[in-house]
Design a protein that fits this description.
By secondary structure, the chain is an alpha/beta fold. 46% of the residues lie in helices and 15% in strands. The protein has helices at 18-29, 41-50, 54-57, 71-80, 108-136, 157-177, 195-208, 212-220, 231-242, and strands at residues 9-13, 33-38, 62-65, 88-93, 139-144, 182-189, 253-256. β4 (88-93), α5 and β5 form a beta-alpha-beta unit. The longest helix is centred in the middle third of the chain and has 29 residues, at 108-136. It is globular and about 55 Å long. The model has no long low-confidence stretch (mean pLDDT 95).
Length: 264
């Protein structure tokens, strides 16, 4: 099985923590040069320094600073990294989810902000990177979304709505780009040990006037694997989809959730 990403550059968004950081590490371990993108410059440099050192692997890791609430910043940052001699052939779209709450209570501006952060940024990044992928005859666009694409999660109204929009965008793109050797797939993490999950658990505990441990136990009880996922487990799925071995997997939603989803 060919899992080598040697000689390929990967752009990993939201890569200073959690799933994004784990994806950057896993892709680098398979030989990719990584371009990290997030808004915290200091943490970007910290993550870059921890990746496999160029001195021993020949990889060259770069950083881009951009705030994903500002699509124009994202567009400028990605275009600044376009290099025909070192093209971005793998894109991992990943950014923080919208605030919790019921859909009926959300202001229209919340939907617009989430649409910009997820769909519009993904589109801008694709438009900047796909030309080089077409030239190379190789491309991977992998979107970190949520199991809510298949089964909406209570009290995540805005997130459920926007994640589904990303999934539909990706499915459309997969049909348009498949003939160029470019695949577009979505990874759907279940309950994974990240700052996002910690925040959701705290919020639910406060709302229900109970302990965070009680909420965690309640969530875990819905997972056949009997535990929360690790960011590295999500990253392993992303790395496989990025590899040559996954060339014939296109346009799918892949849950990585310990079996929690009740749907097929």
């Amino acid at each position: 099985m060919n899992l080598s990403l040697s000689g390929k550059r990967a752009l990993v968004c939201g890569s200073t923590q959690g799933i994004g950081r784990a994806c950057a590490v896993e892709l680098a371990n398979l030989g990719a040069s990584i371009t990290l993108m997030a808004r915290d410059e200091a943490r970007l440099h910290e993550v870059a320094a921890a990746l496999p050192p160029p001195a021993t692997t020949g990889q060259k890791h770069l950083t881009l600073v951009a705030d994903f609430t500002q699509p124009e910043q994202v567009r400028r940052a990605v275009h600044s990294a376009i290099n025909p001699f070192d093209p971005i052939l793998i894109v991992v779209n990943n950014t923080g989810g919208p605030a919790a709450g019921q859909a009926i209570d959300a202001a229209p501006e919340a939907f617009l902000a989430a649409f910009n952060a997820h769909v519009i940024n993904n589109q801008l990044i694709a438009q900047a990177t796909v030309p080089a992928m077409k030239t190379a005859g190789y491309g991977r666009i992998i979107n970190i979304i949520s199991t809510s694409v298949k089964q909406p999660i209570p009290n995540l109204g805005v997130s459920n709505t926007i994640r589904a929009a990303v999934a539909s965008w990706a499915k459309t793109l997969s049909a348009e780009l498949g003939s160029f050797g470019i695949t577009v797939n979505n990874v759907l993490p279940g309950y994974t040990k990240t700052e996002r999950l910690t925040s959701l658990v705290k919020g639910r505990a406060a709302k229900q006037a109970t302990s965070e441990d009680a909420i965690s136990r309640e969530l875990i009880s819905s997972i056949p694997a009997g535990r929360f996922g690790e960011a590295e487990e999500i990253a392993a799925a992303v790395a496989f989809l990025a590899s040559p071995a996954a060339a014939y997997i296109n346009g799918i939603n892949l849950p990585v959730d310990g079996g929690r989803l009740g749907s097929l």
